[in-house]
Specification:
With about 210 residues, the chain is an alpha+beta fold. It has 5 helices and 12 strands. The protein folds into 2 domains: about 80 residues, Elongation Factor Tu (Ef-tu), domain 3, CATH 2.40.30.20; about 90 residues, Elongation Factor Tu (Ef-tu), domain 3. The chain is globular.
Length: about 210
């Protein structure tokens, strides 16, 4: 579990393709590598990965085909910068929103324009996710917790503050770049519960309870 508040960035040091599919990726991030241990969960550009090896300067991860299919990790090359977040501990402040690191899809940045002190991003709306992304709701882009400023069937918009552009890779993203998109898990489970309720219909006990109140 993550919060989407990016405190660290790392540099891709090596990418080794596995002939069976997937890859092994090593990321240099001295600020957090020293406290990491094998089996730790770390979000890399919003994708929850497990540390398999680490030393004082770097961490290695196995990225399986499912993660490659759903995210931009397969396009990363040595030298690229990535957003990193350590998993939350019980008692940590949740300054962003609940982020699982389970990327739903990739989306393209359609436009990035200056707006006040920050920038306005317009991002393609994946058709399958339209119902989950609403104005003033939450999304995570490349692991960054963000608020939706506007939404339509074709796209949604994000207002980036200067702090976000300075501390995350979104500051270097431009029109045409792809980002990892994760919807708000609360929206996911709410929609699934409503769909199941509509499919099955209310029970007689539920109707009796509803009439009582």
């Amino acid at each position: 579990m993550f919060s989407g508040l990016i405190a660290y960035q790392g540099r891709v040091a090596a990418v080794e393709r596995d002939p069976r599919g997937g890859l092994r990726m090593r990321i240099e991030a001295p600020a957090i590598a020293a406290e990491a241990a094998p089996k730790d969960s770390i979000a890399v550009d919003g994708v929850c990965l497990t540390v398999v090896e680490c030393d004082a300067r770097s961490m290695s991860f196995d990225v399986v085909p499912e993660s490659l299919d759903r995210s931009t990790l397969g396009a990363l090359q040595p030298g690229d910068t990535v957003n990193l977040e350590l998993s939350l501990r019980l008692g940590d402040r949740l300054g962003g929103h609940l982020v699982y690191g389970h990327v739903d899809a990739t989306a393209l940045i359609e436009a990035k324009v200056a707006e006040g002190q920050g920038h306005r991003l317009r991002v393609t709306m994946p058709a399958a996710l339209t119902a989950y992304i609403v104005e003033k709701g939450n999304v995570a882009l490349d692991g960054v917790s963000l608020t939706v400023a506007a939404a339509s069937a074709e796209s949604f918009e994000i207002a980036l503050i200067p702090e976000t552009t300075a501390r995350t890779t979104l500051g270097r993203k431009s029109t045409g770049d792809a980002v990892n998109l994760e919807i708000d898990p609360i929206a996911r489970y709410t929609a699934a519960a409503v769909a199941a309720y509509r499919s099955d219909g209310p029970t007689s006990d539920e109707l009796d309870w509803a009439y009582e109140i």
